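FW: tagging you since you asked about this chain on Friday. Here's the raw sequence from the shared folder, copied in full. Didn't touch anything.
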Amino acid sequence: MLRLEGLTKRYKTGDRALTDVSFTVPAGQVVGLIGPSGAGKSTLIRCVNRLVEPSAGKVFLGEKELTGAGRSELRRLRRRIGMIFQEYALVERLTVMENVLSGRLGYVPFWRSFLRRYPQADVDKAFALLDRVGLTDHVDKRADALSGGQRQRVGIARALEQDPELLLVDEPTASLDPKTSRQIMRLITEICRERGLPAIINIHDVLLAKMFVDRIVGLRAGEIVFDGPPETLDDEALTRIYGSEDWNAMQKEHADAAEDAAAVAAYQARERAKAGAA
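HL: got it, structure written out here
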């Protein structure tokens, strides 16, 4: 379980990125974090694992307080937090398997990681995870030979290789097409429920969030302005999160995207029909 109490981030300029943010994420729950650019979503995620130091407030993972941890204890606590990045953060020249095994770097001696001689139990687990994310046939491929969706699956497997107690996911679908985005969101949420993992997903696509997550937290100017199940996220709540002008623009973008997707699907159906007739 993750618990945030009064989390606040104030910069030296006096600007506040977060103001008194408090909520709890129980085991197995997937929270979608939404809001306009600059709302504090990425800052919140990075304050949880202290990549950004909060100015005030507390963060608890189980009974352990991350905000009170010293440097060596923080290193140990970070092993319990899996991070999945928008830009994948893979080592391009390494293979899929080597990238997944890098999730064990916090657990093995330096010489093992340097020589790439991981314990057999870690290797066996990596094979099982690659099977779970659908990459069994790509184990020996270099990361730079993969598609965006495949790279994100490697990132998911790497995070799970840590045996985390929490997943933090930063814009996992921002660089992906709509179909792959749905596949990645489905994979992340299924794995969280299978393993009882709490997760926070910073996501810009409201419709995708409503489709997959258990709960939505909406931020505006660093403050929580919505916290509830996806089905209660109506236009009034979305206007409160994004403002009327931005939300209306987003609705138009979604409508245009849906129209484009329908046109592409119709074209592909016609082409398949022509090929069948030939």
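FW: DSSP finds ten helices and ten strands in the chain.
HL: agreed, and Residues 34 and 182 are 17 Å apart (CA to CA).
FW: great, closing this out.
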